[in-house]
Structure formats: structure tokens, C-alpha cells
Amino acid sequence: MDSMQGMDHSTMGHDTGSDASSLSPGPDMETPPPPEAGSGPPRAADAFWGAKAMAASREDLRRSHGDFPVFWFQGDRFETQVRDAKDAYLWDIQGYYGGPTERLWFKSEGEGEWGLSPDDAEVQALYSKAIAPFWDVQAGVRQDIAGPDTTHVVLGIQGLAAYRFEVDAAMFLSHRGDLTARIEAELDQRITQRLILQPRIEANLSAQDIPLLGIGAGLDRIEVGARLRYEVRREFAPYIGVDQSWRIGNGADFARARGQASSGTSFVAGIRFWF
Amino acid sequence: MHRMRGGAPIRVGFDELSGPAIDLTVGHGPRVVQGRKGLGIAVNGSVPGPLIRLKEGQTVRLNVTNMLDTDTSIHWHGLLLPFQMDGVPGISFPGIKPGQTFAYEFQVRQSGTYWYHSHSGLQEQQGHYGPMIIDPAGDEPHGYDRDYILLLSEFTPLDPHFIMDRLRKGEGYFNYQQTSWTDDYPLSAADRRMWAEMRMPATDIADITGSTYTYLANGRGPKEGLEYLFNPGERIRLRIINGGAQTFFNVRIPGLSMTVIAADGQNVKPVEVDEFQIGSAEIYDVIVTPREAEAYTIVAESMDRSGMALATLARRPGARAAIPPPRKPPLLTMGDMGMNHGEGAGGHSMAGMKMRDPALLPPDVEFGPGIDMVSMMPVDKMGDPGLGLRDVGHRVLNYRMLAALTPNTDTREPSRLLELHLTGNMERYMWSFDGRMYSAVSDVPIRFAWNERVRVKLVNNTMMAHPIHLHGMFFELVNGEDAAHQPRKNVVIVQPGASAQFDLTADEPGDWAFHCHLLYHMHGGMMQTVTVMGPEASG
């Protein structure tokens, strides 16, 4: 953290320092209140207005100051992909309902060729709990809604890593006993106040070959992209970008065996939105 | 949420009401500021609401009728009164139901400049506030020729619940002064990496900015020409009230110095300055003596410099002076994280320092996801003029320059120290005392014995300044003055990463609200009830 040496220190401590000797005398160690301070909840108003009349307003105050729920819905990627082969669509949405530390999350992503049903699609329902200032741990279920019918249990972590990388990493254990994992990271780079470049990386891993799903053991697929969005409003940002994906190792073999390309480049255009 | 169609258009500015019985009506209606339309809540049909002018010693009955379709309330900010008349629903009374009239009745035990506002929901943001003057029973300590109110606030066309929602969902929603590849902030690449590494924005000066706010002077936007007339050489008393829901203002009058004569309604020894920062709900009375110029501009710049409220001291109607352009937005520094040079410590190393070290917190602080930072070396910054004013090159007020004009009556040495930590998580928009939001401590008050004299130390473990307000009592800032002259206030700004102390005589029995006066921080959880026991409890 040598970089901190470079910070502008000229404004620090200027006329702001403490000089304890000039303060009026007083205790400098915290001690508990005396017994005369009483105990129990604050109920002084009950004597004037009645406990019943106070109860509703007390509850309203408690529920509106601090831990109250909000509903958030985000279309992080909602795009068309222009490829050498047939053009495709992709969605990647998520949202939550809950307070600042405890939330119910849902996620869905999928893709397919225009005019056809998706090749790949899933929905997740998760319970999410804050474990650190910037991190939530998430647990729940995932249902694949395209391809072979597969249900997974999910254990993941989502949050903001150092340098402001938005990270979403999860392990999936399918009802057939297959263990896979996915790690996604995105980084917002502001070019101006509204023009934002977002590099993105996604890696899909598997503990075993899953021939049924065409997934190879180890690092199966990696995807790197960059999206340039313009925030017309914070909640609404059209973007363009490029996305490159590779199947790796056994995953690449599975792809070739199925007559699919083992890598591909897409030019993308879409909107990012939330409310 | 309120359904707020209909209602008469809300007027700008205020009438004056006085006497032993005062009728107030809270209603809603459309509001237009500089062509921007919104839905407002107003007392007696105007924003700000009427000036309530009382006399020290009188008894007053304030009949408040609620014409909204939700509950409302009026809190008399800074007034000494029985706690059940303080007007905080859920703490001091049940609130005022739609269609109901509530009579506040109390004896006026003080004098000075005050204000009133809703303590229900987010109504204060929508215009539910007004000024209050209490004339002293005896003579004013200072003579003056004219007496004006300047009530600063904000207008937004947005529903305040929408604002709260956006703050909780993050993304620096209202900040359009963030660092970018094309900004001209004096930050090196290494600085930028360090801020990014910490996941803290150096530009987080104000949560809500001029991107939605139009800053108001007595309800008027900067283009709506609020003016105060003067004759050269007259002494003019300006009673400056920050009624902003979420804004710190920096106030100056280019070409004129200001003599501060009162803070939060209480007289102080006159002190001459060129500028001062005023936190939400703070009040400063100043005397200015305009001379030769035709006009002087009163500039109240938002602390993040994203906008300003303006007024003019004019020799004749329509006279105007130059309006200074907004200054460059300030940046947070490592000092605002509580990294401060020790006195004479010489060199320093940041290596090995932790952003969030629980060992630096007392054990009664709940250390969890709601705390994203622990101030490393919090020092008392009573001498800090405030963010953006530390190097402006002219005289800026700070708390060390304030001294009570008349000696305080209770000069006992405090019998104990109470240490409270201001805590928060910027990303989740959680705010709290000691790591617990109000929702977790609504039944756990901060308790004081009757007439107990306590030193309260506030330690700010966040990178934002918080104007902390105690209802129902004045405290005395521990600012280097002797106990008899520590200035009496009811709001104290605790600078980012720093500490501040006040001495309190707990002599007003009952339950009182204690909170950050930034409205959205209070709703984010930075609030707790203070319970003062009555004399009967100490036998």
C-alpha cells in the first residue's frame, strides 16, 4: 500500500488536530450507566397516550428505519449476438427481494439461436445472506429449462471484490450427482460519467465428464467479453460489445463430436436495465 | 406511499403566525420549482411553511390538522419541551392520523432561531418544514436593523421513497462527479488503484446531488431571485437554517464578512468569518453589514459543489451581484478514513494497516456486514471547517471558534464517558450506531439517569460526515473552551473518520430521538432512542 504515500496529505491534520490538554476535564474511559439510568425498552409515551396507541407507530418506526425490504430486478445482459454462424439471443437477469443483509435472489440465464428455443437455459432461486460488508453467501436450487431436465442444488458467493470486481461464483450439484462450478467477474470502467466499459470473464468448470450434457472435466468453457454501455439513465443503458468463448480440453472434444465449434466470436448489442 | 393527486398548488415562501394559539394544516399539492414539477407536502399551503414567531415565556397551543391520507407529525426542532410534545411518532407520541387535529401545548422556555419539520416517513423531503423564531423575554444581545430568515433546502421532482430505494440499490445513483478515465481530479494512477482496491469512492461527498436536487433559499430556486433589501451600513441579522434533507451547504457572501452570533439558536460570542459549513438541521445566526455595493450574492453551495442555493442582498429591488461559479468538487482523503498523522510521529507507514480492524472497536459494537470500515486513528476534529473548506484561503468557521455568550449553568465534570460509534456500509446503504440499525435497537434505548452529567464521544467509522442530532436537550461541544463556555448545540457534525465529543446534562425526562439528521441515513438506520429517567427514579 505504498501508493498511499502519494495521497494529498496537505489537507490532512491541518488545523484539525486534537490537543487534549485544552479540553475541559472529563473521563476518558467508557463506563456503564448507573443503576439510576433504569432498564428496559423506552415506553415513556405510554403514560400519556396509552400503550395501545403507541404500539402501531412504534412498529412503523422500527420497520421503516434500518432493515426494510426492497425489490430489485436487473437485466445485466439482454442482447443479440452476431456470429459467423446463425445469430443468437442471450439473457442474463437477476434480482432480489429483501433487506440489506438477507434476501431472496433469483437468477436466470439462457441463450439460443433466433427463431429456435434456447440451447441452454436455467433459473435459480436462492436464499442470500450477508457474511461480510461486500459479500453474500447464497444457497438454493437451479433448474435447467433447456436440454436434459436437470435440477441442481446451488451454493455460491456473490459480491464486490477488491478493485470493484463484481463476482458471482457458485457450485452446482445435480440430481445425477455431477458437480460443476461457474465463476463470473465484471468490472465497470467509467470512461465518462455515462459511458462505461465493462470487461467480463466467465469460467465454467466440472469435476467430471458429463457426456449427457456435453461437459468436459476440468475447465470446460471460458468466455471473455467487453461491453460498452451508455447510461441514458442509470437504469437504462444500451450497449455494444464483443464476446469470445472457448471450449477447453474434453469440453472442446464434446463440442466437436456434436458438430459444434469449439470457439466462437460474437459481436453483441443489447440493453442493460434495472429497476 | 402517498396518493397525492389534487390539492391546491403549493405556494413558495411563508407567512408569519404568532400568538397563544396557532393553527397549522398539513396538506399536499402540486409544486413547481423553476419549471420542474413535483408533488409536495406543505404546512398551511406553502414551502417553507409559515414562520412561527413566539415569545420566550409564553404558552403556546399549536393545533396541527392532517389533511394527508397518511399519518403526519411536526417536530419542533431544538425546542425544550415535555417529551410527549416533541412530535416523533413511535417515540414521543402516536403521530397524527389523517383527518385528525393534534394540539401541541407547551411553555416556551428559550429564545433564538429554530425550525420545525415532519418526523413521519420522508415527508420532510417533500416540503413539510418551516422556520421558527422565539424572541427573548429581555433584550437581544446585539443590535440590528433588519431581521431576515434564510432557510436552505432542496426540491426534487422524485418521490423520496424512490430516492431511498435507489440509494439502497447503489451504483452511486445520484453521483455524476465520479472518477473516470476523463476526469480532471488531482489523483495519481496509484491513488485511483488504492481507492478501487478499497471499494470506496473518493468522490462520495453527497449521497444525493444536484443531479436531482434544485437547491432552495426560502423555497426558491437559484433562478427565482430571492432578495433581501438593505440600506448601506445597516446591520442585518440573517437567520440561516439548513432545512435540507440530505445536504451540507457551504455558505458565503463574496465581499462581506459574516459575524456569527448564534449556533442552533443559542447565542455565542461573536466571531467573524468569511464562510461556514452548515450541516442538515444546523442553524447559524449571522450579522452582516453591507456597505457600498449595489448588491451582494449569498451563495450556499452544496458540499459536493453539484449545485447551489442563491439569494441576493440588494440595495434596491432587482439589483444583482456576480454569481461565482461552483468550485471544483472536493475529494475524500486518507484522513477521512481516520488515517491521521500522530502528533510528531514523523514518518508513517500505511503498510499493515487494516481497513476494518475489529480490535479498534469496543466490544459493545456489533461487528458485522453493516460495518465496512473502522477508523484507524480517529482524532478529534472540532477544528475541521469541513470537507472542501480546509484550504479555501479565507476564514472558515469551525467548532473551536464557538463559545457560549452567557456561561453554562451546569459546569460539573462529567461523571462518565459514553462512546458511540457511527457505523455504516456504503454499498448496502446501512447506517447505524454501534453496528446496529434502529430496527435492531428500537427497544434498546441509550439510557441516562436523572440530571446525570455525561461526556458523549462520537467516533465516525464511515467516510461521510454525519450531523448528529439529539432531541429535547442542548449539549455542549467539548471544543477546548472551559466548561462554562463550551457552546450549546443540538446538532454536531462528526467528520469522516474522526471523533467529536459533547457534554450533556440529562435533565429532560422522557424518551427522545437521537439520530443522524441526513434524512436517508436516519431511515437507513442511524437512529436510537435516548431515555432520560425522571427525578423520582433517583429517589
State the helix count of chain A. 3
Give the total of beta strands of chain B: 33
What portion of residues of chain A belong to β-strands? over 45%
Distance between the termini of chain A: 37 Å
Class by alpha and beta content of chain A = mainly beta
Assembly type of the chains comes to heterodimer
| Shape type of chain B | globular
Describe the structure.
- The complex is a heterodimer of chains A (275) and B (539).
- Chain A is mainly beta.
- Helices cover 10% and strands 51% of the residues of chain A.
- Chain A contains three helices and 13 strands; from the N terminus they run H-H-E-E-E-E-E-E-E-E-E-E-E-E-H-E.
- Chain A has helices at 46-49, 51-64, 249-257; strands at residues 70-82, 88-98, 102-113, 120-132, 135-144, 150-161, 165-174, 179-187, 189-190, 195-206, 218-230, 236-247, 263-274.
- A twelve-stranded antiparallel barrel of chain A has the order 1-2-3-4-5-6-7-8-10-11-12-13.
- In chain A, strand 5 (135-144) and strand 6 form a beta hairpin.
- With 539 residues, chain B is mainly beta.
- In chain B, 5% of the residues lie in helices and 36% in strands.
- Chain B has four helices and 33 strands.
- Chain B has a six-stranded mixed β-sheet, with no helix packed on it. A six-stranded mixed β-sheet of chain B has the order 24-23-26-31-28-29.
- At the A-B interface, helix 2, strand 4 and strand 9 of A face helix 1, helix 2, strand 23, helix 3 and strand 26 of B.
